[in-house]
Amino acid sequence: MNGGKHRDGWRPVCLVVPCYNEAARLNVDLFRRFLAETQTVRILFVDDGSRDQTAQILESVCRGYEDRAQILRADRNKGKAEAVRLGVLYALTEFEPEIAGYWDADLATPLDSVKKFIETLDAQPQIEMVFGSRVKLLGRHVERSAVRHYLGRIFATAVSVVLRLPIYDTQCGAKLFRVTPQFKEVFAEPFLSKWVFDVEILARYLNAYGNDPRRLEKLIYEYPLEKWVDVAGSKVHARDFLTAFVDVVRIQLKYLR
Q1: Which residue has the higher pLDDT, 135 or 65?
Q2: CATH homologous superfamily of domain 11-107?
Q3: How much is the pTM?
Q4: How far apart are the first and last CA of the chain?
């Protein structure tokens, strides 16, 4: 893809979509509709060693859109963090996007939000990243189980304290970044955590910007999603929050001393 703005106002973008045993949750029609309507966004699916029919379903998604939809296959399951990281590294090498990020395969965050994230980046050149934020406001459709919501609020509060960053939602699986030298540095090495690597991304950005949370705060835009629906079949369970807290401590010890 060539750099610069395209005629419809969109910039070259690559979305990495990690997939592990997602055959029952992949919505072929929604992905194909997005590809039909959006000419300057490339989707890179990372099949993270799936053992079901994920590979075949992904092939049906990409059929006819091979110029903008590809599959990167892992020989074994490496976890979401590494699937995203390897997808980002592949995208940077092969596609040279101006904007890159990742999106959950279940489309809990609709693909319609991709355009809004890009528009936010274009309208605010001082920011470097847009994160989906699951804020339950009147007039917005955010469906999440009460248990996961309150556990998420406890976790987000703890992360804010550790990072010294007033972020509301670190774990929403919809994020876009400008491709900068700092972005490339953040994704260069494997993550400590398989699940809360989003927190580790922020910790690495803090390191890249001199451990100055005030500076980093000015580079992040949390976009309150118009719609987010908890899709059945998530691989994250309530018990995983304990592991997540342990990982946050490990991240703090490595990056934030």
Answers
A1: 65
A2: Spore Coat Polysaccharide Biosynthesis Protein SpsA; Chain A (3.90.550.10)
A3: 0.91
A4: 40
Q: How far is CA 108 from CA 32, 66, 78, 223, 226, in A?
A: 16, 24, 22, 15, 11
Give the pLDDT score at 107. 97
Q: Which residues contact 156 (CB under 8 A, 6 or more apart)?
A: 167, 168, 169, 170, 171
| Residue 232, Ramachandran bin (φ over 0: left; ψ between -120 and 50: alpha; else beta) | beta
Residues of the chain with CATH 3.90.550.10: 11-107
Q: CA 151, 199, 31, 59 torsion: positive or negative?
A: negative
**Residue 237's CB: how many other CB atoms inside 10 A?**
8
CB 18 within 8 A of CB 105: yes
Q: Which of 15, 251, 191 is nearest to 111 (CA)?
A: 15
Nearest by Cα to 45 from 59, 29, 33:
59
- Burial class from Cβ neighbours inside 10 Å (0-12, 13-18, 19+) for residue 124 reads exposed
Structure tokens given for 11: 């910039």
pLDDT tens string 204-217: 999 999 999 999 99
Place of tokens 């835009």: 221
